[in-house]
Amino acid sequence: MLACGLAGADKWSVFRSEPFTVYTNGKDKEAREALALAVQVQHTLSAQFGKELTPSWPITFVLGKGEGKLRLGPGGYLAGAVDPGELAALLIRENTLPFDEEIERGVIALYSTLAVDGPRVRVGAPVARPDLAWARIHLLFTDDRYSGKTRVLLANLSKGLDPVVSWGNSIGVKEAVITEEAKGHLARGQFATAALNGKPIDPRRWREEILNAQETADLLARWNGPAPQLKGLTMAQLEEQAQKWPRWPEPHVQMAALETEESRRAQRWRHAAGLAMRDVELWKKAAASFAKAELFAEETKCLVAAEKAAPTRAEREKLHAERLAAQERRVEAELAAKRAEEEKERAEIERLRQEALNRIRMAEAKANDGKGPVKGKVEEWWEGPKGDASLTGKLERVDCVGGTLRLQVRGEDKKLTPLTVKNVAQLNLEGSSEVKLSCGPQKPVRPVTVEYLSKTREVTRVKFD
What is the pLDDT of the chain when averaged over all its residues? Predict the structure, then answer.
């Protein structure tokens, strides 16, 4: 009899329903009930938030090995029992943006009372220490005026939508009104339960698998094993882990540390932050890395995400200020780049002009038959094409586009006429020896006479009066 008792104690069996696995060395009925509880927590909570709430790791319950506190061990989360409140907290944390802390705490407290009786699922039994946060959610779930609308409120809040708009578009009553009602609800102390639409399952249909000696040893080793470690792995090994566990941010965090190119490092940080959702620090690291890479638009996007992920109003306000500062830096950088490009274009125009003047001087020297350059003012002469039309007025603006100039001349008839200089080197400028064409608005506006080809409006000669 003693031998049989030890054999019975060593017999382990397993029941599965993704993403949950339940191991037991006791009665299979307890294991089936534990698995049904986990399945119904996930199903009903997903319905309340309007999307499938899935854990980032598989969840394994080893009954009789401890409490329901979930921890990360080899290959996934581990716990010694199914605690519906603890499971609800993990599913909310890993699948939603932060929202009102009181509401989130109230939902978790309410779900800690979830009970499964066959296909029926109920919540709302009194908790050990009811408070206002719990009473407000209890009221929303159990009062017929609000129970059908609560899931819309939770879905909106968990997406980061404005709380005032979320309450108005779902419950149809201001949050302050519900809070006052909840105070009275808490004071009366009459807490009814509410039925939820459970998943149609039959625990008796789950197949029991009996573990052999090696599988039992592996289970116990896993239970006692540490959380997975990634430090010291190569980039290829980290990539393998990222593919194996696609919702685990840690491989991307480690790969970010190994990247040598800043923009790629920033992308790693951003991917990790997107998986973690609520990890503000990862979003901030991604933003800082994008800023170093001078990708300021991406920096701003990461700061917006960090602002949404912030758990408190004070932190959101701080991140909002940082985002505005980042936007100013981006604008300043863009303006500086534009100014540098304009300066480059002006320098190119001046270079072409000096080349033209040098050719003139070389031609004069050749014409003097080696007698040296003519002393005094150099008159620039022109042998290029002659214009068949002219315009007298004021030069208001010069637009520099590559090697082309666009002159905006307002004639004596007050009309603005656009003219084009396609080859600056062949442009004939007359007037002061210090005459220059600078890009942008002309300050001051200068009187000119412009000769040009009427068919193409190409300038052949500019005389400054």
Answer: 88
